[in-house]
Amino acid sequence: MEFNLDRSKKENIVSSLKNDFKESNLLVVTHYSGLNVSELEDLRAKMREVNAKFKVTKNRLTKLALPGTSFENVSELFTGPTAIAYSEDPLVAAKVAVNFSKENKKLIILGGSYEGKLIDDKEVKFLASLPSLDEIRGKLVGVIMAPGSKIASLLQEPASKLVRTFGAYAKKTT
Fold first, then answer.
1. Is 113 helix (H, G, I), strand (E, B) or coil?
2. What DSSP assignment string belongs to 148-161?
3. Is residue 110 classed as helix, strand or coil in its secondary structure?
4. Contacts (Cβ under 8 Å, ≥6 apart) of 64
5. CB within 8 Å of 12: residues ≥ 6 apart
6. DSSP state letter for 69
């Protein structure tokens, strides 16, 4: 990111961040010191795959974008070389950031905000451990479908027992 931005560029960055924050339910604040360009691009690609974003931003500009959003309470986390991860889905940004930080110790989870509540790094890691909405939906469909499939197998069971019994009786009499 350029360090010599004119006023209009700074205003555009703040406005863009504010819009992104208003559409997001989760904000994860990280320290990225030591990550090289290819590692940052790898992390961004992983975030894009799950419809999340990862940005290295200027602390001062990010703090200007926070008021009026549900993330106002995280401004204290913006010290040093920070980057942010955020997503509309409340879990995916946390999952990708935490998994990446396990693989690459240079990314440090500082904390964040979830639906207006300030959370620490342990709570971010807890959110990352929860099943995603798609996983929950899949389990729910499985639970709903299970009784129907059990009923179908129970209804077929007496008929198959009857066929086996007749088959055994037929072999016995011949």
1. strand
2. HHHHHHHHHHHHHH
3. strand
4. 14
5. none
6. S
Find the largest Cα–Cα distance for the chain.
98
pLDDT of residue 1: 46
- Sheet order of strands, 52-56 included: 52-56, 82-87, 26-31, 108-114, 117-120
Phi, psi of 120 (to 5 degrees): -95, -175
Q: Can you give the length of the chain in residues?
A: 174
| Burial grade of 57 (CB within 10 A; 0-12, 13-18, 19 or more) | middle
How many Cβ atoms from other residues are within 10 Å of residue 46's Cβ? 17
DSSP-based three-state secondary structure for 105: coil
Question: Residues in the chain with pLDDT < 50?
Answer: 1-2
* CB distance 107 to 97 below 8 Å: yes
For residue 94 the two structure tokens come to 């946390």
**Measured distance CA(110)–CA(121) in Å, rounded:** 5
**Residue 105, pLDDT score:** 92
Q: For residues 80 and 19, is the Cβ–Cβ distance under 8 A?
A: no
The pLDDT tens digits of the residues spanning 95-131 come to 999 999 999 999 999 999 998 899 999 999 999 998 8
Predicted local confidence at residue 135, as pLDDT: 77
